[in-house]
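Subject: design request, 292 residues
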C-alpha cells in the first residue's frame, strides 16, 4: 500500500491554513492547486495511454475544493476514526482523485507516473486497500452513493460528528440504486451527508438528456427530501458555500454545473473526450494552455 509523503503532507497542511486565512485570495489559491492537478492528469493519461480525461478535468475543481479547504482529513492518518468520509462514486475518474491525493501529500507525486501500469496501486478504479485517502472501492456506477449513505447512518447511530461527501456522475444517476439510497438518506434525516453531482451533461457516447432525461434535476432531488444547492462547479468560492453543513436538517444535494474537459479548450464539452487519449501534439497543447 502507498504511504503518505510527510514533506508534502506538511506543505498541504500549510496550504490549508493559508486558504482558511486567505479571505478573497481563497479562490486564487485553490485555482492554483486545481491547475497543477489538471496538468498531472494530462501527463498521467499521456503516459498510461488510457483513462477518462474529460470527466477527470470536469471534477477537478470539486475535488480540490474539498481536499484543499473542506474535508477534515489527514494524509498521515488516513484512517483516523473521526475523519470526514469522501467517496468518489464515479470511480472511472480515479485519475483526478489520485492527482489530488498526491498533491495533498497522501502519497508521493512520483507515484503518479505508475498510473494504470501493470500491478500498480493506482489502478483504473480506486482501491481502498492500496491507496490512502480512498474510502471505498468504486467503479461499478451506482455503488458509491449507497456506501456513503451507510457511512452517514453509522455516524448518526454512533453520535459521531464526521461528515460524508460523495461525488456522482450525472450519467450515473440513471442507476436506480442511487434513488433507493436517496430515499434512505432522507428517511433517516442524514443531514451530515452531502451528495455532489458532477453535472457536465455528457456521458459515454452522448449527452445525458439524449440518453435518459434528468431535468428538472433539482426538483427530482427535492422530491426525495434533499436540500438542493445549484452552483457553478468551477467556482471555488461558490463550491465552498455549497459544501457548508445542512441548514435544514435534511441531506444536501449539490448540483455542480461543470464542463467536461474543463481547462483544455479543444476538449471542452466534447463527447469523444470521455475516454479518448490525446496524441503528443495535443498533450503539449493542453499543458501549454494549462500553464497560462
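Subject: RE: design request

Done. Sequence follows.
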Amino acid at each position: 500500500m502507498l504511504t503518505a509523503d510527510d514533506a508534502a503532507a506538511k506543505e498541504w497542511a500549510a496550504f490549508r491554513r493559508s486558504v482558511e486565512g486567505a479571505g478573497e485570495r481563497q479562490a486564487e489559491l485553490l485555482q492554483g492547486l486545481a491547475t497543477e492537478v489538471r496538468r498531472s492528469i494530462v501527463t498521467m493519461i499521456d503516459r498510461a495511454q488510457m483513462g477518462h480525461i474529460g470527466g477527470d478535468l470536469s471534477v477537478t475543481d470539486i475535488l480540490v475544493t474539498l481536499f484543499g479547504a473542506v474535508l477534515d482529513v489527514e494524509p498521515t492518518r488516513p484512517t483516523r476514526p473521526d475523519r470526514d468520509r469522501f467517496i468518489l462514486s464515479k470511480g472511472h475518474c480515479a485519475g483526478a482523485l489520485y492527482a489530488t491525493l498526491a498533491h495533498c501529500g497522501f502519497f508521493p507525486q512520483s507515484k503518479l507516473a505508475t498510473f494504470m501500469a501493470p500491478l500498480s496501486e493506482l489502478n483504473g478504479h480506486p482501491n481502498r486497500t492500496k491507496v490512502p485517502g480512498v474510502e471505498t472501492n468504486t467503479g461499478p456506477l451506482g455503488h458509491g452513493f449507497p456506501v456513503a449513505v451507510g457511512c452517514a447512518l453509522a455516524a448518526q447511530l454512533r453520535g459521531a460528528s464526521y461528515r460524508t461527501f460523495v461525488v456522482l456522475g450525472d450519467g450515473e444517476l440513471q442507476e436506480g440504486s442511487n434513488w433507493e439510497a436517496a430515499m434512505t438518506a432522507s428517511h433517516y434525516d442524514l443531514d451530515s451527508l452531502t451528495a455532489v453531482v458532477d453535472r457536465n451533461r455528457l456521458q459515454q457516447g452522448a449527452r445525458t438528456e439524449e440518453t435518459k432525461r434528468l431535468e428538472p434535476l433539482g426538483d427530482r432531488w427535492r422530491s426525495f427530501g434533499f436540500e438542493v444547492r445549484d452552483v457553478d462547479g468551477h467556482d471555488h468560492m461558490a463550491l465552498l458555500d455549497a459544501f457548508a453543513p445542512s441548514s435544514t436538517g435534511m441531506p444536501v444535494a449539490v448540483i455542480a454545473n461543470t464542463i467536461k474537459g474543463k481547462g483544455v479548450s479543444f476538449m471542452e464539452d466534447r463527447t469523444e473526450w470521455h475516454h479518448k487519449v490525446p496524441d503528443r501534439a495535443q498533450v503539449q497543447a493542453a499543458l501549454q494552455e494549462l500553464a497560462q
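The mean pLDDT is 97.
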